[in-house]
C-alpha cells in the first residue's frame, strides 16, 4: 500500500472572465472540501507562489497556486469510489463557464519513494515553505540521480535552518485540464521532490551553497526536464492527518 500524493497546480488563463478572488474562494472553500469527502484523501494543503520569485523561469511563476492532497494509498485513484465520484453528476454550467473555461489545472498522481524527516519536529506539518522540484535526469543516469539525493542532497538540506522534511515521488499519471479540455501530459518530469521548511524565510544562503557542490552541478546541469516551484502555505485542511510517520531512507 504505497503512499501517494495528488498534486494540482492551477492558474487563471483568462483574467477577463475570472478574478483571483473568485477563483480562490471557490477553490479553497468549495472544491477542496468536495475532494476531501473521499476516504482516499484525508488531508490537503493549499500553497501560493512565494513573492518575489527567486527565478523568473520558475514553474510557480506560471502556476501560482498549488494544492497537494495526502493519499495513504496511491492505488485509491483506481477505486470504484473515486471513479464514481468523478463522473457521478455533470458540473453546473455556471461553474464551467465561470471557472473551468478560464483556468488551467495540471493534475498529477505520484507514488512516494522516500521520506526523510527532521527527527526533532517529526509529525508536524505541513511547513511554512515548500520547494516543489519535478526533475528529469537523462536516460541511464537515474541510479546516480537517486544516489545523489540520498547520499548528498537531502543530508545537506537537512542541516539547513528550518528544515522539516523531504519527500520524494515518482509520477504515476499526469493530465492537463485547460479551459475545460483535458489531455494527457507526457512531458512531465518523472521524479518529484517536496522540500519543506519552517521559519521566517527560506534559508537562501544555505540553499545556494548546496547547489554548488560538484555532484550537484553534475546532476542539475545534466537534467533534460525541470519544473521547480517556490511556495508559501496558504491554508491547511485536516492538519491532524498530515504527513507520514517515522523516518524512511
CATH architecture label: 2-Layer Sandwich
CATH first level: which class?
A: Alpha Beta
Counting DSSP H or I runs of 4 or more residues, the number of helices is: 7
Largest sheet: 8 strands, antiparallel, barrel
Mean pLDDT: 91
Strand order of the largest sheet: 1-3-2-9-5-8-6-4
Global Rg = 18 Å
Derived from helix and strand composition plus strand pairing, the structural class reads: alpha+beta
Strand runs, count: 9
Q: Whole-Å distance between the termini?
A: 17 Å
Low-confidence stretches: 244-249
Give the topology string: H per helix, E per strand. Answer: EHEHEHHEEHEEEHHE
Question: What is the domain tally?
Answer: 1
CATH topology category name: Alpha-Beta Plaits
Helix content: 25-40%
Overall morphology: globular
How much of the sequence lies in strands comes to 25-35%
Protein name: EthD domain-containing protein
Organism: Clathrospora elynae
Topology:
Blueprint: E1 4-12, H1 20-36, E2 43-49, H2 59-62, E3 65-71, H3 80-87, H4 93-98, E4 103-117, E5 129-136, H5 142-158, E6 163-178, E7 181-184, E8 191-197, H6 204-210, H7 214-221, E9 225-237
Antiparallel strand pairs: 1-3, 1-4, 2-3, 2-9, 4-6, 5-8, 5-9, 6-7, 6-8
Amino acid at each position: 500500500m504505497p503512499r501517494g500524493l495528488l498534486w494540482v497546480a492551477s492558474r487563471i488563463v483568462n483574467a477577463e472572465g475570472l478574478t483571483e478572488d473568485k477563483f480562490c474562494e471557490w477553490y479553497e472553500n468549495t472544491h477542496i472540501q468536495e475532494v476531501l469527502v473521499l476516504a482516499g484523501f484525508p488531508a490537503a494543503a493549499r500553497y501560493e507562489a512565494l513573492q518575489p520569485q527567486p527565478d523568473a523561469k520558475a514553474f510557480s511563476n506560471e502556476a501560482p497556486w498549488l494544492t497537494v492532497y495526502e493519499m495513504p494509498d496511491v492505488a485509491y485513484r483506481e477505486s470504484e469510489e473515486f471513479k464514481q465520484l468523478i463522473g457521478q453528476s455533470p458540473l453546473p454550467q455556471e461553474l464551467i463557464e465561470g471557472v473551468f473555461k478560464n483556468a488551467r489545472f495540471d493534475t498529477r498522481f505520484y507514488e512516494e519513494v522516500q521520506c526523510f524527516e527532521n527527527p526533532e519536529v517529526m509529525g508536524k506539518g505541513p511547513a511554512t515553505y515548500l520547494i516543489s522540484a519535478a526533475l528529469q535526469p537523462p536516460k541511464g543516469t537515474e541510479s546516480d540521480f537517486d544516489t545523489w539525493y540520498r547520499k548528498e542532497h537531502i543530508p545537506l538540506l537537512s542541516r539547513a535552518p528550518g528544515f522539516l522534511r523531504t519527500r520524494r515521488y515518482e509520477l504515476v499519471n499526469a493530465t492537463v485540464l485547460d479551459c475545460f479540455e483535458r489531455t494527457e501530459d507526457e512531458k512531465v518530469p518523472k521524479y518529484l521532490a517536496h522540500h519543506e521548511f519552517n521559519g521566517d524565510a527560506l534559508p537562501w544562503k544555505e540553499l545556494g551553497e548546496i547547489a554548488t557542490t560538484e555532484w550537484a552541478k553534475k546532476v542539475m546541469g545534466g537534467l533534460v526536464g525541470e519544473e521547480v516551484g517556490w511556495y508559501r502555505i496558504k491554508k491547511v485542511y485536516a492538519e491532524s492527518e498530515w504527513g507520514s510517520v517515522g523516518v524512511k531512507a
